[in-house]
Amino acid sequence: MINKLNHNVAGPATALDELEASEAPERTEVARRQPLRFPLVSAHRIAVLCDGFALPPTARAFRSSELSMVAAWKPDALVVPLNMALLLAGEKLFGDLKLPSVEIAVAVVTRVDDAPLGDHHRDLLWRAFQVPIFEMLASWDGSVIARECEVHDGLHVDRDVAVPTLRDEELLLTHLNDSTAPVVLARTGFSAELEHGHCDCGEDSPRLHRLTALRQSVTA
Fold first, then answer.
1. What does the DSSP 8-state code read for residue 174?
2. Counting runs of H as helices and runs of E as strands, what totals does the chain give?
3. Could you say which residues of the chain have pLDDT below 70?
4. How far apart are CA 12 and CA 124, in angstroms?
5. Residues 4-219, CATH architecture
6. Max CA-CA distance within the chain?
7. Left, alpha or beta for 125 (phi > 0: left; psi -120 to 50: alpha)?
């Protein structure tokens, strides 16, 4: 499966095969806000604790310092960066945080220049919230390029924003969010598996599986 992309993807990825990989760009702010696409339509009050989204009427943005306001608003779902999600999970397990209204799901935003969502993270978040956990993978500028679907079968790549490529087991990304300065074949430092074909959720976009920091996979 590791080399499946090089043989099965037509279009933009084929033209990229002749180009050299580039180093990852520096982290920047979100260049263009994206509509929030929550994985479950059953969520009606979504508390969003990170920037970069154009929010639907069902969602409300909060700063990290406004947790008491989050609890008072009684959201049934959360969108939160990984580091904050782990902090909230710890506080909830120790009884320092009360969010009984969160009964639908927690969407965790990770980044290609940070750590992916690991199984140990999912275990901690499940013990704390006891709701389904979904990952949203953001690029270097904070825009979401892949989302975990409702059947938890990998992260579906947004083909309007990014093109994934695998070389020597490393995930490379061509990022199209900024047409004036696109990122072409940037190294991520992650190994991955890439799957194509129809997903049980109804999507047919490429799916990323088993994102792992390369240094971790080498150690293993």
1. E
2. 6, 13
3. 1-16, 31, 177-180, 215-220
4. 39
5. 3-Layer(aba) Sandwich (3.40)
6. 55
7. alpha
